[in-house]
UniProtKB/TrEMBL annotation:
Pfam families: Methyltransf_10 (PF05971). Its EC number is 2.1.1.-. The keyword S-adenosyl-L-methionine applies. One of its GO terms (biological process) is rRNA base methylation. GO terms for cellular component: nucleus. This is U6 small nuclear RNA (adenine-(43)-N(6))-methyltransferase. InterPro entries: METTL16/PsiM, METTL16/RlmF, SAM-dependent_MTases_sf. S-adenosyl-L-methionine binds at R119, G147, E171, N224.
Amino acid sequence: MSTSSTTSTTSSTSASESSSNKVILGKRSHTETIEKGESNNGQMHSRNRYRNNPPDFAVLAFKYSSFYPYVKYTKEGKPYIDFKNPEAVRELTYCLLRNDFNLILEIPLDSLCPPIPNRLNYIHWIEDLITISETRQDRTIYGIDIGTGASCIYPLLACTLNKNWVMLATEIDEKSVEYAENNVLRNNLESKISVVLNKTDKKILLSEEVMINNNIRFAFCMCNPPFYESQEQYEKGVEIKQTPSLSVCNGTSREKFTPGGEFQFIKDILDESLVLRNKIRWYTSMIGRLETVNKIVRELKRTGIDNYVVTEFCQGQTRRWGIGWSFGSQRPSTSIINQTSKKLRKISQPKTEFRFGIPADSHDVIGCILVHLNELDIDGNFNDENGTFFGSAKTNTWSRAARRQRMKSSECQKESKELSSSSSTSATSVTTTASTTTATDESTVFETLFEFTLRLEPWKSNATNTKVTFSWTNGKDRNVFESFYSHVKKWMEQKFAANDNE
Ligand SMILES: C[S@@+](CC[C@H](N)C(=O)[O-])C[C@H]1O[C@@H](n2cnc3c(N)ncnc32)[C@H](O)[C@@H]1O
């Protein structure tokens, strides 16, 4: 059976064990949880509805007569189900989808039965990634689910949770396509989800049916690839699992196996992404084995892609991983980069958030920073409500060379003013004009180097210490942003040290 069913087992087992610990989560927006910088910490995604609210088998059995026969009770009266029984597992999945998402599905008994909490973790992580680039919540978000399976689980859940999402679901297996299409129709989601049969297993995205002749610019693609390359590798994988599998082994061979295993499948997506580039903003995949995460990160680096994120999907004792990469210049926040274990942070891209403290109140600090940003010709808007500045730099105005150049041109201007006030010669005015033009040209010729936000905390309080946080939100060159940040930090520290000494 596929490892995904094992995920269902361990999750539901641990879920029922912790059912005394129920907390109903209030509805929180994507941006809210991202801003709070919440990481997985060995748990489900912070918006996953099952994180602190595991399924209650007794309640489900009472509500759904089809599930009732599968629920048994321990001597202590604790409800449980036999995860070795594929029908019981499938009924549980049906009940959760119906009860919590108002979705009705039909999945063949020999096919993969998707564990819902695990599938939600991946969708919530995609929501976080998309939030970086899509600030307008009313805009249609286009996504692709590669290998949607008979259940069509990702598109169905994703479009139910996100009303502005539209998804293309791809699949190579004809029977699965038929089931997936019927599942879409059954839930009246045909205006949101299209299922296509990918006629070649040699191509994943670059096939005629998927991206060739498709003019849509997709925000993301997602994929739960077949994990193993052979039955032998699968059996080995099962053997080395630390906890014995409690679950039945369902899943067709197409769902479990692919030549070269998951590494080759994701590597193929990576190779195709090098052709498609910005036609899809975030290329992502689920990963079943930790060693594959390291191998794919090495491939990303080898091809020069530095804008990537890795994450860990936790569900009970089972771990899965997620990887995403982009050719765009939008940078994920540090909290998205950090949505993983400490171990994986080492191979993630470095942080995009930088912080220092200034021993003064926020009013004095912002006054000083804004004057200096103005001197540096940094464009931007300051939001006085929350103490946040949104800025962009067109050209490097803070480097030593740029500052020397600025000093030279202001000296020139001073000289020319003095000369023109004593004797107005045409030669001097030409010099003045020339130097101004050079400066103007420099700032208009270059595109935006980077965008950033600058936040002061605590804002509008009498605290005599202010935390200044710079976040790199857009740009290709990390070194340029970091040199700007270092310059402003040094300048501020010197300024306030000087004030202290006065
Ligand atoms: C592990 S299953 C995932 C099913 C479902 N997405 C889920 O998460 O439960 C992988 C699926 O990918 C499909 N697949 C394999 N190669 C493919 C390709 N080149 N294009 C589209 N689908 C493919 C398989 O048929 C299988 O249904």
